[in-house]
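#onboarding

Welcome to the new folks! Below is a worked example of what a typical request in this channel looks like: someone posts a single protein sequence, and someone else replies with the predicted structure as tokens. Don't worry about understanding the tokens yet, we'll cover that in week two.

Example request:
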Amino acid sequence: MRQSRYTKTDTDAPRQALIYCRVSSRAQEADGHGLQSQETRCREFAASNGHEVAAVFPDTITGGGDFMKRPGMVALLSFLDAQPDTQFVVIFDDLKRFARDTRFHLDLREAFRVRGATIECLNFKFDETPEGEFIETIMAAQGALERKQNGRQVAQKMKARMQLGYWVHNAPVGFRYQTVKGHGKLLRPDEPHASTVREAIEGFAIGRFQTQAEVKRFLESKPDYPHNKNGKVRDKRITDLLTNPLYVGYVCSEVYELNWLKGQHGPLISMATFEKVQQRLKTTGYAPARADIGEDFSLRGFATCGDCGSNLRSSWSKGKTKYYPYYLCQSKGCESYGKSIPRDRIEGAFADVVKTLEPSPKYLALAKAMFRRAWDARLAQAKDAARLTKHQIADAELQIEALLSRIMQASNDAVIGAYENKITELEKSKVLMAENLAEKASKPKRYEEYLELSLQFISSPWKIWESGDASLRRIVLRLGFSGGFSYHRNDGPRTPKIALPFKALGMISVGGKINGAAREN
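Example response:
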């Protein structure tokens, strides 16, 4: 045993006391076992033994593991190191506050011993005799056993609850816990975060947000959405948001090896939307990820050089008194390399093109008739598809039952794992088919809503573009044009490729001139 490097002289004199308090969690601190109650008991103990309390060191951390990872304990030991000539007694209200790991208990005892500090506990008397050390070791081992047993019991209860479809960890953004009779704590939508999360995920699924960077900027634009101290949303949180099965109403856990269990909580998005997001995450979005896209330069990534056809870059150039926005080609070897085009000139020319997309009342009436005819045709197809989907759902249920029977008979872990993965895929497939079935059944009642949204865009894309909203302008670019906007720094714009339905309805003259200055692309 190591010998103390400090020498104590007057052991009968009143000693200064240091109090150490610890709780395992904030919740434990909030109830009757908090830090304040521990400190009160330790102060009473110190007064009854004639000690003067010099300092109190609290910790809110579990008792297992290395004591040097506890900030309060590190501060206490540093305090002792800073005053090597002062006698201290360290007071704990319970032996379990000291350490709940046998090895670290003994190490901590040695750490106090070499610093010349003695230890006193309200419910245990430390004895330096061999018998006392034996009993202390047994008590420390018992505490370690209780901690591990409690951890195992908690893990078993958490897994059992998750198997019933209840999420047991922190609620993700968009949900909050609410006590529900017959369920206990259950996830419920948390507004306005739930609507923000839904809009972000669905926007990425349909292409409104082309990249995760755009989703991030959208969330950062919401003042109520949780941000870090710099007002930013971490990239990992965006990935977690787009891949979390909880938003679809399912519970998954790698820790407890649970895959796609139907949750007791309601979903924020459909399985179809979730699958679209996963497919898009596998591909690289084509929209640039810079913060100035659509904010300062609406055509960045869409406007192309009239000489070489490469995408025009954008930048701010400093003048004598202020900065000026420009587009420019940066393809080496191009005749327009490094030549700037004022932003207002090229975006003004594109605005003239957007204005030409507005149809006449005659074409609007034609579009409405086409929509109705196409809608009726799709309804007839939907009835046949619904019957087929019902048969497919029944077939998937039979396959799941057969696989469950095979699992009961199998003994090879690899085979069982393969069966479980197949069942998971079939369950997801069932949900997708059921959602599609429900969606098709509701479509006839939503016809006017769909028609109104479609005609609103077709009737006046210019009003949408003129709003200046970055997200809406990107929608105009994607739905109104099938190619980029070619612009020559001297000759001006060339006729862009117009997308359906504008081209199909003959609303504009394909290949015509724009402002008398355009050439055919």
